[in-house]
Amino acid sequence: MRKDLAESLLAKIMEWSDEEKAAERAYLESFASYKYDEYQQFSPGKRFIESLALWLGQFTGGEERREAYNFVRKRLLFISTDEMNHLVELTFPTIIRPILIADTATELGVDPHKVKAIVDTVEYRTRLRQTLVLGLSDGARTDWFRRANPQEMSNEQVFHAYDVSDPKSEGMVQDLRKHLTKILGREPHDHEARFRYIVLLDDFTGSGTSFIREDGQGGWTGKIAKIVSGLMKAGNLGDAIANSGVKIIIILYVAGDQAIEHIESRLPKLTFGKGTVEFEVVHKLGETTPLDDASDSPILGLVADDRYFDDDADDEHSKVGGTSKRYGFANCRLPLVLAHNTPNNSIYLLWAEDDQSVRGLFPRVSRHRKLQ
């Protein structure tokens, strides 16, 4: 749909006067070009203003449409590709590097604030090379992480997935041994030629349940639990890491408070026999991000309306979250959109999929899409 036609349709749906149309047009065009048009799951040719007009058109009456529009104007949170890439760039200097510096300072018995002196030491450079960075999903953006830190880490230290084959892990150890020989000025001992830091990257979690949760049988499941279990076994990465003193560092670029509390309350109960597991977040959404019953009652009223929810959205995966996805997976109630896809932790009205009876403003493409 052409932009001018979409704008005319939007003005008609909202029953704007000429003055209102002029004022809102400036705002919408600014944000559409700045962020919203880059949403990657719009169908070919569709842009934000057209999607907004069609989304608002499904609501009944001017009052509902105004409530929905005000939600977009005042509460919608959209993280663009550039913003996410910036968080990726911050990961090494704000989280990984300080951990390596602090551990090196402890080893040397020096003040950790003497950063320049520490990073010039063989001990720091050894720890840095013994660091392996793995992606937990496509959202980890390991390619961007690698390009953002070309002077700090070699290509062999960054891999896009955590499921690493035996030949690949063996190659990683061989490269580690070769580089440590240059750093140490001698052939490293076998225990030195092993990774001591495993950094796991991912872009977002709203609830934390996909990372770690109880399995109902007294144990744990989720990405973190599976990785920890794998590292304790022979073969693959289990043979590529040290036998003790290993740090697993889970880093999320963005996380909601609900997810942070969920993960932090469970990680201490997860046993890792070769070392410790730490959890870090580059950007925390904060406690005011989820929609509130009092201040956000107009949009939540629409969310609660059965006319604006498709029961097909609640599938077998909803059971893991414990509630309907109407308010977002695990009742997260987020007003959040990521440029590459809308998380299902956001309210359903934002992400309703194209094959469902309700229109989503930023339709989601699910990993668990049903086959036709």
UniProtKB/TrEMBL annotation:
Residues 55-364 form the PRTase-CE domain. It comes from the Bacteria. InterPro entries: PRTase-CE. This is PRTase-CE domain-containing protein. It comes from Mesorhizobium japonicum R7A.
